[in-house]
Automatic annotation (TrEMBL), chain A:
Keywords: Centromere, Chromosome, Coiled coil, Nucleus
Protein name in UniProt: Centromere protein O
Record-linked InterPro entries: CENP-O
Record carries keyword DNA repair: no
GO cellular component: Mis6-Sim4 complex; nuclear body
Subcellular localization, as worded in the UniProt entry: Chromosome, Centromere; Nucleus
Gene label: CENPO
Cleaved signal peptide residues: none
């Protein structure tokens, strides 16, 4: 085979062409009876080379065009055509209006060359907490390019439901989830930090802070931790629990005062943020001390 | 104390570099501070280890304590393992995930024990609501091999599980089953994502990356790169705090041809860094 000896023809181009002809030859040999004339082989070779040359020329042209486009814009977006750009211009205006309106709800945004980067600032009881961003690319379909939303927040679900049809609702819904998560996390962190003395052992929690389990006491002086609490937050858009179970595990089970306390605790946990519940326990404890002193 | 446990503790402590010895022993919290202070940490390592093992024997260290030390050692030396990533999924429209860590641990262990009598399962809670699990596999007739454990790292209420490479592939289905059932998922698949760096893998699957700008600096000030008609052939090694983002910005910066090879850009989106190139 003459091709095997033609190693002097260096370069990728020649090699590619060699491989191509080899392949087409072996296919031909399987299908048709072999035609050994040197002329027809040369003819095939010429055709293949021309084809390859045309392909490469086209690719070079494409690349040149792309680089021109890159240098023309600050940040290129090859997928966005001029006509579409005009069409989505309207969407950008809409976005700007929404963001201006929601500025006071912790939602802010800044324009990017691709679309808009929305920043969601969370807060709970007047305390500013973590911020998260969602970088939106205004295209058809609208998509999220980047985000810093924690992986356990159901961002995909919320996007699937609202992103394409109602950006406003998408942002509002995401805001709700993030604020509620931040609020629950804040309560759990406060409890662990400021009221560790009231807890026996560490606070059991999970990533979403929607299941909290702990053993606690209400009297600072007491050596035992008579109550067990299990708080469930089935609604991820709220900062108060949906299920509260308080069990009394002390030895004095017969006394009615324990049952009263247990029931009142349940009510407290349902209605007040965690750390506020413990603040009131602490205050009651102080009051008790004061009465003993006087 | 069982001889095998003593040997296991001895070998684990021997692995610990002297510079980390105190830190790791304190994290283990099995030998109290006052006891540790009676030990001479300046002696030769072999003698130090002997002293420490003796203290452990006096305190009747169990296999459980030894396994915990192994977890802590591995946490400090996580780069020594190669980590795979598995992705779990739920049925659509399921109820809110009320993940209970204690329930997860108990369920996980139960499933393993039901299938395999000889297995050692240990847990250590970690930051960010995660848990490190250590599993030493045995067979129906043989006790667990403590020297070839599998480590699993799971962040609660996420669909991703990180596991250290395991030679014994036969136990993977059982491990997968235990993970999915205990965490209330339905399916689990192995991703084409593998690395020694857990933090890197975390950043990719949890999509935790910021928008940093990294510039490519060349030492060749217009030397080899200037006025070339043909492409330049060279090997470039990139390192950066956010490598993938940096690579993506090469094209807009005019340094690389657009578009970049999808092999590079698909890593964060598809969560793959492991590619199989086959013949057609």
């Amino acid at each position: 085979m003459e091709w095997a000896n033609d190693k002097s023809k260096g370069g990728v181009l020649a090699h590619l062409e060699r491989l191509e002809t080899q392949m087409s030859r072996s296919c031909k040999n399987l299908e048709d009876p072999p035609r050994e004339t040197a002329e027809s082989d040369l003819g095939t070779k010429i055709r293949k080379l021309r084809c390859l040359r045309d392909k490469l020329r086209a690719e070079v042209k494409q690349r040149q065009a792309r680089i021109k486009a890159s240098t023309a814009n600050a940040e290129p977006d090859q997928t966005l055509e001029i006509s579409e750009q005009e069409a989505v211009g309207g969407k950008e205006e809409n976005m700007k209006a929404i963001l201006q309106a929601y500025r006071f709800t912790g939602l802010s945004g800044k324009r990017t060359s691709r679309g808009v980067c929305v920043c969601i600032s969370t807060a709970f009881e007047g305390n500013l907490l973590d911020s998260y961003f969602v970088d939106l690319v205004i295209q058809k379909p609208l998509r999220i390019h980047h985000h810093s939303v924690p992986v356990f927040i159901p961002l995909e679900e919320i996007s699937a439901k609202y992103l394409q049809t109602n950006i406003q609702h998408f942002l509002f819904c995401l805001c709700e989830y993030l604020n509620a998560y931040a609020g629950r996390k804040y309560q759990a962190d406060q409890l662990q930090r400021d009221f560790a003395a009231f807890l026996a052992g560490p606070l059991q929690r999970n990533s979403l802070c929607n299941l909290l389990s702990f053993t606690y006491k209400v009297e600072p002086q007491s050596r035992s931790f008579p109550f067990c609490a299990r708080l469930l937050y089935k609604d991820l858009t709220t900062t108060l629990p949906t299920d509260v179970t308080i069990t009394y595990q002390g030895t004095d089970a017969s006394s009615t005062s324990w049952e009263e306390q247990r029931a009142s605790h349940e009510n407290l946990f349902f209605t007040k943020p965690l750390h506020q519940v413990f603040t009131s326990f602490a205050r009651n404890g102080e009051r008790l001390d004061m009465s003993l002193v006087s | 104390m069982d001889e095998t446990v003593a040997e296991f503790i001895k070998r684990t402590i021997l692995k610990i570099p002297m510079t980390e010895m105190m830190t790791i022993l304190k994290a283990w919290d099995f030998l109290p501070e006052n006891q540790l202070q009676t030990v001479n940490f300046r002696q030769r390592k072999e003698s130090l280890v002997q002293d420490l093992v003796l203290l452990c024997e006096n305190k009747r260290a169990s296999l459980r304590d030894a396994a915990l030390l192994d977890i802590i050692y591995t946490q400090f030396h996580r780069h020594q393992k190669v980590w795979d990533v598995f992705q779990m999924s739920k049925e659509p429209g399921e109820d809110v995930d009320l993940f209970d860590m204690e329930q997860f641990k108990s369920s996980f262990e139960k499933i393993l024990r039901r299938a395999l009598k000889n297995v050692t399962v240990s847990f250590r809670d970690a930051e960010e609501n995660a848990v490190w699990i250590r599993i030493a596999w045995g067979t129906q007739y043989r006790k667990p091999n403590q020297y070839k454990p599998v480590f699993v790292v799971y962040y609660s209420q996420t669909p991703y599980v990180f596991t250290s490479f395991c030679h014994l592939k036969s136990n993977t289905p059982l491990l997968s089953q235990a993970l999915t059932v205990a965490s209330n998922h339905h399916k689990i698949v192995k991703m084409d994502l593998r690395s020694r760096y857990l933090d890197s893998l975390k950043a990719i699957v949890f999509k935790q990356y910021n928008q940093l700008e990294t510039k490519f600096k060349s030492d060749f000030h217009g030397g080899i790169l200037a006025e070339r008609k043909e492409p330049l052939r060279c090997l470039i090694k990139f390192s950066s705090p956010h490598l993938l983002e940096a690579l993506k910005s090469l094209a807009p910066a005019g340094i690389a041809d657009a578009p970049l090879s999808p092999l590079l850009t698909c890593i964060p989106n598809k969560g793959m860094n492991y590619f199989k190139i086959r013949d057609k």
